[in-house]
Amino acid sequence: MAEPPQPQRVLAAVRLLAAAQDPEAIRAAEAALAREGAAPGFGVALAQIAHAAELPPPDRQAAAVLLKQYVKQHWVEGERGFVPPEVSEADKAAIRAALPAGLADPDSKIRTAVGMAIAAVAAWDWPQAWPGLLEFIVGAIKERKDTNLLMGCLRCLGVMASDLDNDQAPALVQALSPELAAVVSAPHTPPGLAATCFAIMAELAGALASLSGTYQRQVRNMLVPLMSPWVPLVCGVLGADMQDRAGWPAKHAALRLAQPLVTYFSKPLEGSVPALMGATWQLLLAAQPLHQAVLVEGSGEDGHDAADGADGDEGVGLESLLAQLFELLLSLVGPPRFRQQLGAALPQLVYVAIPYLQMTEAVRVPAGAQDQAHAWAASVNQFVADEEEDIVSCRASAELVLVELADTFGVAALVLLLEAVSRRLAEADAAAAAGQASWWAMREAAIMALGACSDQLVQAVASGALPAAQLQQAVDALLQRDLAPLAATGAALQAQQQPVPPPQLGDDGQQLLAGRALCVGARLQEVATPAQREALLQAAAAAVVAGSSATVSIGAFRALACLCPAAPAAGLAALLPQLLPALVRLLGAAEEESLHLVLEVLAAVIDAAGARGAPGLAPEQALAVAQPVLQVWVAHTADPLIAPDAQAVIAAIAAHPACLPGLAAAAAPTLAGILARGAAARGAARAAAPPPAAQGAGEEGPMLVEASLDLLGTLVDPGQPAVAAELCRGVLGPVLALLSASDDPSELNSAVQLLLQLLRCCPTPELLAACAADAPGEGGGPLARLLGAALQLVAPAQPDSCSRCAGPLLAQLLKTFPSELAAPPPPALAAGAGAAAGPAAGSCVGLLLHALAAKLAGGGCSAATVASLLEFVVCLALLDSARLLELLAGMQLASPGGSAASGLAVVVPLWLEHAPDMTGSLLTRRSAAALLQLLQARHHPALVGLLCQGQPVEEAGGGGGGRVTRARARQQGGLHYTQVPAPAKVLQVLGQLLAADAEGGRGGGGGEEEEGDWGDESGSDDDDDGGGACAPDFSSPVGARLKAMGVPPELGGEGGLDLADVMDRSAAATPLPDDPADANDPLLRTPMRALVRAGLAQLAAADPGWFEAAAPHLGARERAALEAALGVSAAPGQRRRALLDAGPAEWMPAVGAAAAPQAAPPSGAAAVSVWLAGIAGPTARITAPRAGQELVITGKQPVMFDGAASQALAGAALVGWDWEVSGTRDDGRPFETSFVGAQRSVVLPAGRYAATLTVAAAQHGDGVLSSGSDVVQAFTVRNATAEAEAAAAAGSGAAAPPFAAPEAPQQLLEGPPEPGQQLDEAGQQQAALPPPTQLDIAPLATMAAMAPLPGAAAAADQAPDAAGSDAELLGGTAAAAAAPLPPAGPAVSEAAEQQQQPAPPAAAPAAPPAWPVDMAGIAPGQIFGWAFESVLTTAGSEWEAAQAAAAAEEARRQAELAALMQVRGAGGGARG
């Protein structure tokens, strides 16, 4: 028997698929289709079936749909979603030829399916392979002879328009716009056909949003003439009778088209926009009665059936039509060019918008909103789900319009809103009096409008633009009209009356009003009176305790979350005994949709119970809450909403000190069991064995284990070491087992974070006892298992992501167990290292270092992992850099290529490469300090012969010069780098750190985008014709602080800085360390520039030739940063010749050669003064004070120093103003101070002074710095207050001052300013700075390997005796490599200066011990930090502290320069 033709076989397969019901039949039909699809001609057969008029329409429609899918999968090989085989070219041509005829089919479903298939082919082939398609479609539309063909072509265009690229859309608009406009404007055009035309144009015009820049502007310019005819067409459709529901699809599509017209073409179509706005306004008014009748009262049909679109399109309901109307209104409200027209209609617009906020139905229910309110009252889940999903409805869109009006028009819109709300509330009361069933819907809409703009209303009251009484009256109305029963019940609760009367709230609508009133009243609490806030809190608590309906309970939850953080302690404490049990009961009855709301309220209530002096939770209350919350947490660990909220409740309980011990005791066994079972399951999986069934292993998923670790972390409090010790005894074993068994990076990271918290918070003896109890039968000491887990994290076989958390753990082990790690390692661990570890195997520290170096030598580590591991190396370098170099040099490591390399050749180059990748201000500073330690060991034989990667170079003959681009690198076969000695690379890295620190402090600002006439690059043609930027709001606490700090007004307002964001980023710039002990590390408060300057100043004094030889290895960026830090500046073209032309240095011999002897270094002053030669710079100009001027002040008023008139040379910009003021007080004592800034207000004691201003300028091209100075001599400061007091004491009157100084600016700090304190332009008091004679280079004990600085020994003497001085601890064998600086004058303390007594003489530095040192008894925070006399005074927040630190550093630098200039004999001459 012959096989049937292919079309018949394909038809049989199509029918088989359509008739299949069960999964087996469906799979068999799909297999048959797949077999036919693999054969040539399958697509042609489907096209023939779709066009066969004799076949049933379902078969034809199914064939057309399958053809569309076939085209998408098989048309172009290599494209996304392609499935072989590819359609042959012959079949493609046959399909393209057959498809257009289907657009004229009488059946609309066939036309739609064929149109979708044509669109799928056109996406690949039009216009290149199918050039006649557009001509065919445009011709059919233009002729309009065949209605079916016209409808089919329009339907096909609608599909094509939604899937066009940037080149196709403009061409299609040009070809179709006139023809579509002619169809719409033709008389007797059916509404469905017009709707299709509008929808096509809306898709095509909306495609402009995907264009950008110049191309978008060119396309829009080209399309303006084509879009002009559409504006009157849109206006005509919008103005048609609203009662004609058949016209709703056309109105909806016209609104869609109007939105891109307003967004992209409003400027060229400016004359037509008022007509469009008028038509929109009329539609808004005409739709309101229908909205009330159909959607609110449910008295009419929604019109889905009567408002069907063209050619089988889905109908348009009133809800979607109104939502699209409000989307257009949003587009009109935002741009400034429409504000004048909207401003005239603003009162009516606000009033008319409020009724659209009335509650409508998600589905059509005959009883309307009343049924919806009943359903919400009965089901919390449905209420929460409907509210969260209500984001595209008419109600949500109208709310957004009101918010946008309030943001755009400010106080004017808010005043109108309050008036409109008042009118609508009165209308609702009148409807209630008239007996209307849905009276409450309008009242709820008015309350919702008030809540939608609550943030703007509160801000307006805070700024004084609105009186608080207006909003307080609104809150009173809510309390008296909607919340009176709840408030009465809440008052009885607080008074602890028995029995408590239940609230009587009325029907479902009134209950919904009570819930809305609770939520909105809580949002307005900031402007409410204390009595109103208390009444709101009582009402919300009563709603929870009474077990009210869902609508009331949800409102109460949201109200409590807002009210509790600011609630008075006494009022909340009285409610807690009944509120907490009620919340716990709700926790057990709540479903998933509402569970997270109950948890949020619990967290807010518990947080507030311990705030502002409240007595806090009792331990029994905490346990009653904790147990059910833990059960919820275990059951919903994978839920992204519930699990974090449950953990927040546990953290809130843990924040109550009295509750933490009981909470930890209750939670630890459960969590430890989860960890133990998880560790057993992972160990069994690693060993390819089934988990031990007796322990129930394998039941704990990864998310539960990780979440348990995170939850345990919330129970570890540094302030309660006893609790940390108890937790350590219970969970340390499972945590270590998990570290050894797991290979999940997230689990390992969480386990390490918990272990770090335990190490930081648990006393060391308890830690050692817990470690010993964890493995009582194992040898090797108590730390063997802990060290084993750490070694496994850095094992070469461990994946990169699993080793990323190892560095901080190793560093913490070094801080927590210093003596134990200095001891020899357990034999089992030492045997694993083998002979390759060399001398490092003699101590636990060396063993850890060897494992880390082997991990790095194995390669494959990401930059983040390398930076993390290097934290341990940084810590060791701070302890003893020379010993670290010896240990690394003694290691032999295997590289991936099979060759051997020393640990030094592996670790140090990686350290220098990834030092900029280290994150965190403290770690970055520690790394810089450790690099300075390496520089002190620059003559170490192992370091001298080490070469590192330097700057990228251009191959000879590359031409062009300049930096090496990627294109040039490809031309020369990849990037090539210079090889530089490791010490020079260290200096280069220090320059990189300095440059990054400076750039981060200034903030990175990108260049501004050039805007054309069409506006910003987002495509909107709004160019803000009306008005400038709004003035910044300094009314908030954040704004007041910034105003006091002198933030210029132009930085606020629209387009300026977000004031809260500024403060957040400022605080984030200097975050507190994770380890509480690190908070005392002075490095945390030492600017990077001061740190590097202190270390390099010694180096310049001891070895001036070192800079000469290292300079050629520096890039321009690093050199500029180092010169700026050292106070060196050179005019363009006048850099010191030695910096540019220095030859090879004697201290940088060839690899393997010995270091050449060095010449005797010059003195410190002479060494640094060489850098100050050949200076030329800008013009400094002091305009206040003037020479010879007498300034009379009263009390502690400041003197203004003004250098703002200074000017830079051409091609440069001023970047710094450094002031020095010196002279003699009236009591004969000398006085000196220094500060920075173009204008500064400084408190000076009475006396006679001279002032020097040094300004610095940077060249635009290369950033080269230059400086210039101005001097004002012999100005006098008189203190009239002191003179009057002296005269009164002597019994005689003092003469009145000739003139009075201006009033002192408002001080941010408490107490009067002292001499030497500066006030900025806004009068903010800066931290006190000692005079320059008291300042010397900070005695940094981490630089003990360097030459000792003046005052270092004195600072070391103040360290605890038990620990020894930090200078002793951190000293190294390279101390003799640097010569000491000559004394720069005694350091005078403040008390000694007041008593005119010299400071005690400096003691001789102690001899450095061997390393590993015995670090027993040393506080962890002092191991890597150092003790020094701080010249910074922390004042206020991190912002003030950072400002004070910067000012102190500049003052110290100026003091050093002054001393050096005196050595040069410059005296009072011009400064350079």
In words, what does this structure look like?
This protein is mostly helical. It is built from 62 helices and 12 strands. A 5-stranded mixed β-sheet has the order 5-11-10-7-8. It has a 3-stranded antiparallel β-sheet with strand order 6-9-12, with no helix packed on it. β7 (1212-1225) and β8 (1230-1236) form a beta hairpin. α9 packs antiparallel against α10 and α18 packs across α19 (380-389). It is globular. The C terminus is likely disordered.
Whole-Å distance between the termini? 108 Å
Unreliably modeled segments: 303-310, 362-370, 691-699, 956-962, 1002-1020, 1022-1072, 1129-1176, 1292-1440, 1463-1472
**What's the number of helices?**
62
Mean pLDDT figure: 74
Provide a brief overview of the structure.
The protein has 1472 residues and is mainly α. It is built from 62 helices and 12 strands. It is globular.
